[in-house]
Structure formats: structure tokens, C-alpha cells
Amino acid sequence: MILIIDDDIAVRASLALLLKTHKYSVREAAGPAEALLVMDKTVPDLVLLDLNFSMGTTGEEGLELLAVLRARFPDVPVILITGWGSIALAVRGMKLGAGDFIHKPWDNEHLLASIKTLLDLRGPRPGRRTRQQLDAQFHFQHIIGEDPRILQILDTIGRVAPTEASVLITGESGTGKELIAEAIHQNSLRSSKPFVKVNLGGISTSLFESEMFGHIRGAFTDARFDRAGRFETAHKGTIFLDEIGDLDAGSQVKLLRVLQDRTYEVLGSSRTKTVDVRVVCATNKDLADMVARGAFREDLLYRINLITLHLPPLRERPKDIPLLVNFFIGNLREIYNRPSLSVSAAAMRWLQHLPLPGNIRQLKNLVERTILVSASEELRVEDFMAQLERSPTSPAGPFQTLEAMEVEMIKRALEFHKHKIARAAKALGITRSALYRRLDKYQIPYDASED
Q1: pLDDT level of residue 450 (50, 70, 90 thresholds)
Q2: Apex CA 176: angle with CA 164 and CA 230, to 5°?
Q3: pLDDT of residue 395
Q4: For residues 435 and 442, what is the distance between their CA atoms, to the nearest angstrom?
Q5: Are 122 and 45 contacting, i.e. CB atoms less than 8 angstroms apart?
Q6: Locate the Response regulatory domain: which residues (predicted)?
Q7: pTM for this prediction
Q8: CA–CA distance from 286 to each of 241, 293, 423 (Å)?
Q9: What is the pLDDT of residues 75-122, one digit of tens each?
Q10: What φ, ψ does residue 152 adopt, rounded to 5°?
Q11: Residue 223: its pLDDT value, please?
Q12: Structural domains for the chain
């Protein structure tokens, strides 16, 4: 049963009709006193709570009721319904424990998706599952690790992926945030639709609207053709907003609007478009600290972090390092046709004690570089040590940059697998979509029909 608390009878009637049409049981209350009477008799599954009642438009009455509901009924999710002028109040409500906030006039589909998400997340939690149990139920083949914190993250992904919940992934650079985002998409109901990755740190302020929302011909000097934006490309799928902590204040406002309304305007056009998209964000920055310093909008933070997943650095899960090294070695044996490649026990122990500030990305780079340089089939401590001490930009190295190494690895994998995209991606330990992005990024020619 869903309880609607609003002093406007027209709003209650409209919401009740919408919910009943979608097979939800509904109760109504015109104010705090009536709502508590209803809940004392029957505890609802979810509450839709307006912030303003007859006493005025300050929203304080609604917040006071929310505090009472969270204290007396902590397991009942609450969605706040508010006007644009009350967004700051809605943020205060999120701090008090509200699950989401919807602004008036609401979009029916967005409201229904929010209700379904919170009801799904409220369901019973399964007991702690092993890696084998998780792999049997979900698609996690590209995520390597058995550390308890990784298993807890995978378990959470299994619960939230089928919902429409916004997810914020935090963690140091190189911890695998993109892989986690892809896992959320692959295990969601949108898995057959696009997964669009956007590195917000690489988009200048002047190009933000064009990149994200598209433009029409003539919108600015160099706009010779119409162009679809990232949100339009991701329609019905998932958009992954990486490095969201790098977004400037003006762009944060523009992003907030599309996340709030699910609407946007193409640059150069006055026509409003609607988008249906799942939003997953990632950052290596402390957004709460940025909010405190005024560098990140608090309302945007609460819009993107219904679920937060924090990836631990690799140095805090050293038992996963041998698993990762063996995974990398297994892929590289095939690519380089060196079936006897292995790592000595002493070298594996040495690797487990490295600080690895670059995390998984640095470990993979170290293993690949060592294999390329060493002629030995068993890699020893001194082999790894020599490559760790060598500067990645040293001209004496086999490649000048990590990007150059990645290009070479991709080309070799494609050549070895006769340009079969799926096989090359599997050998490289990445998904097909990730390989396609790298092919486009590095302008490596490929034939999609060979997949």
C-alpha cells in the first residue's frame, strides 16, 4: 500500500488514479495528523509526502513529519514531492532519510520508476553469497576479486542493477570504476540497450551542451551538421558519467536539469526532448568535501547517489593481486603465443607488497611491460623490479606512454584473433563495448561485421 500525504485534493486524486492504474493499493491523507492515524493502523510500503501543507510554504511542517516517520517507521521509504522553489528543502529532506524527491509537475514514468526502485530495494536481503554463487546468478566475468569488500559490492550490484536507482561509484584512479558501471548495465533490464560512457573531465565548458545534448546545423560557427548528444545516444540504456567531480558549476546546473526532469534542449533548438536513461556516475574525488567547499552542488549530489559503491584500493586487498596477475598472464599467453608464461612464487609475494598507487591499471601495465621486455618464461622479482623502476615515459622503455602500449596490445590481439572483435576483447579482458570505444578513441580501423 502507498500512502499519499498532500493537502491538495486534486494532487491526491491525480496520484491515486495513476497508482491504481498501475495496480498499486492506495491510501490518502490530507495532513500530518491524519497520516499518522493511518500509519498507526496499517504501515504502508511507501509514502509520497508533499512538503507544504495548510500552514504555509516554508516546508517545515513536511520536514517535521518526515523526521517523525523516519523515527517511527525507519523501514518505510519516503519520496518527497516538491516545487522548484523547494529544492533546498528537498535536499534537507534527503539528509533526514528521504529516498528520493520528485518536483512538480511530475513526470508519471519517472515517478513510477522511482517508486518501483525504492520498493525493490526494500526487499529482503539474501544472505552473504560466495563468489561462485554470485557468478552463477550474474554477469561478473570481467571483475576479478574475492576480497570480502569486493563480494559485498558485487552483491549490492546484483540487488540494484535491475532497479532504476542512480549509482555513484567512488574510489581511487585505476580501481575499476568503469568495469563496475558496465556490470551494473549488463545485469540490468537495459542490458540490450546502449551503454554510453562520458568522461566529463575531458569535456570543456564551451562544448558541454553540444556533447551532452547535441546540436543542430548552424547552432554555432563549426556546426555544419546536426549531431546527436550523449543523452540521446543513451536513450533507453545507461549513461556512465565518469569523473563527475571535474564538472564546473555552470555545467552542473545544466546536468541537474536533465537528471531532474529527464528533459533537455538540443543546442540551437527551442524544442524540448525527453530522455529515458539510467544514470551511473563515478569520481575519485570526495564530493561531500566539495559540497562543503561550495565546489559541487548539494542537490546534484543527492540526485546521483541513491546508491553509493566505494571501491577499495588494491593495496587494501593484497590477496586479490595474484588473481589479477594470473588473469592478465592468462590473456597475454594467448596474445603473445607464450603458453609457458608464469610468475614465480617470490615475485607474486613481492607484487602483493607493492603500494600500487595506480591500483589495477598500474598492476596491469607493470605485468604487460614486464612480459614485453623479459625473454624468460618465468617472471622473477628482478624482472618486475626493472620495469617498476623505469619511468613510463623513458625513451629506453618499449613504449613511451601507457596509451601507446594499449594501442599495441589491441592491434596484436586483433591480428592474433583475425580481427574477431568478441575474441580479441575476451583475450584483452575487457568487454566488446569497451574495445569498440578504444578502437574509436585510437582510430584503429576495424570491421564490425567480423564480430
Answers
A1: low
A2: 50
A3: 38
A4: 11
A5: yes
A6: 1-119
A7: 0.78
A8: 16, 11, 38
A9: 899 998 876 556 677 788 888 888 888 888 888 888 898 898 898 887
A10: -65, -40
A11: 66
A12: 2-121 (3.40.50.2300), 146-312 (3.40.50.300), 316-450 (1.10.8.60)
